[in-house]
Amino acid sequence: MDVIIELANKLFKPILDMGGPIIMLIILTVLALLFGVKFSKALEGGIKLAIALTGIGAIIGMLNGAFSASLAKFVENTGIQLNITDVGWAPLATITWGSAWTLYFLLIMLIVNVVMLAMKKTDTLDVDIFDIWHLSITGLLIKWYADNNGVSKEFHSSLRLQQLFLLGFLKLSTLT
């Protein structure tokens, strides 16, 4: 298992280092080409997606900066200490899709889906890739926790893979 994880890390590290928007540009362009879209239109769609991801990230950063002074003043005036800001699911999904690791998780999910189709454990091809962020955020949280708490890289990599396979299997099992 360690050999597979190490090989996957070596293979995907240069791709992951490009960042989410660039990787999504490449993936959307390639997928569109596979479905017979003209190159110019496929590239245009990929560029628009990359711009959207970059813009959403920038807006979240600006809003965070713009509201921090107001929230500090609110705490000062009311004495209420609110440690958590609930911004809803949309920014969380955007942040998750902004991580290049989400694409790695998507690849794992597609592999699990194809294997389950081949083994006749499901008769559903899961093409709704947007909902992968639900699974990806748990993997990203495992990675963040492990990186910040001295957990070995091998352990948290294998834990993330196990989590993805298990959740992917459960997700696909419910679709049949």
**Segments where pLDDT lies below 50 for 5+ residues?**
none
DSSP helical segment count: 7
Beta fraction: under 5%
Helix and strand content put the structural class at mainly alpha
Indicate the overall shape: globular
One letter per element, helices H and strands E, the order comes to HHHHHHH
Mean pLDDT across the residues is 78
Main sheet overview: none
**Level of helix content?**
over 70%
Number of strands: 0
Report the end-to-end length measured between terminal Cα atoms: 29 Å
Radius of gyration: 19 Å
Task: Give your account of this protein's structure.
By secondary structure, the chain is mainly alpha-helical. Helix content is 79%, strand content 0%. The chain contains 7 helices and no strands. It has helices spanning 2-16, 20-34, 39-78, 89-98, 100-118, 132-148, 153-175. The longest helix is centred in the first third of the chain and has 40 residues, at 39-78.
Secondary structure topology:
Layout: H1 2-16, H2 20-34, H3 39-78, H4 89-98, H5 100-118, H6 132-148, H7 153-175
What's the gist of this structure?
This protein is an all-alpha fold. The protein has helices at residues 2-16, 20-34, 39-78, 89-98, 100-118, 132-148, 153-175.
Key attributes of the depicted protein:
single chain; about 180 residues; mainly alpha; 7 helices; about 0% strand; globular
